[in-house]
Amino acid sequence: MEQDIIRPYKICDVNRDKKKGIVASSLEDLLTKVPDKLGMPSENLTVVLESDGTEVDDEEYFSTLDPDTSLMILHGNEKWAPNMPKCQVSLDQTDDIALGGKGQVANLVGRLQHNLCHISLLGGQDLELLSDMDPDSLADIVTDRDNRIILEHIKEASGRILLEKRQAQDAMELLKLYHQSVANGTEDLTPPKQERVNEPV
């Protein structure tokens, strides 16, 4: 029977760190072998196409997959994400000193190479460095075209997050001032009078 044909597949975890070859005759068969292969729990597993995140949730669809299809195994609330090329930046201490500020930027980029989501955890000073960087100035460190594209994304995201953090800080300062004025009994929310606006020249 067609269902009993054993086919090879490639499986990986959500971070694509663990990659294994596996043979299975059905989706159910594959799911029973995953825990042993990837060292994952056996409950709450979801199978998706590694290429685009399409969920493989029934035997009929599973039977249409080509041999050697790459599958990602998700556990619990894990979500599929596209495979971003890693931005390889390697500097030793002497490079860092010689490059000055550029070395600092390169080290920040190196820290973000495994997960760009970590950019939201950076402090204001680091975000400023990244949002002000000139990707072209790092051409001697980062030569690959895909890496240059990542630098552009990092620059744009840093600027956006920095702006959001500053807006949140401004809002908090205004709230503090408001609460202080209420506590002191000097609450006055009316805007100051503008008596000398638009005077004729």
Automatic annotation (TrEMBL):
Q: Which organism is it from?
A: Arctia plantaginis (Wood tiger moth)
Q: Provide the GO biological process annotations.
A: apoptotic process; regulation of apoptotic process
Q: Which CDD domains match?
A: CIDE_N
Protein name according to UniProt:
CIDE-N domain-containing protein
The UniProt keyword set, sorted, is:
Apoptosis
Q: Which domain of life is it from?
A: Eukaryota
Residues covered by the CIDE-N domain: 5-82
Pfam families associated with the record: CIDE-N, DFF-C
InterPro entries, per database record? CIDE-N_dom, DNA_fragmentation_mid_dom
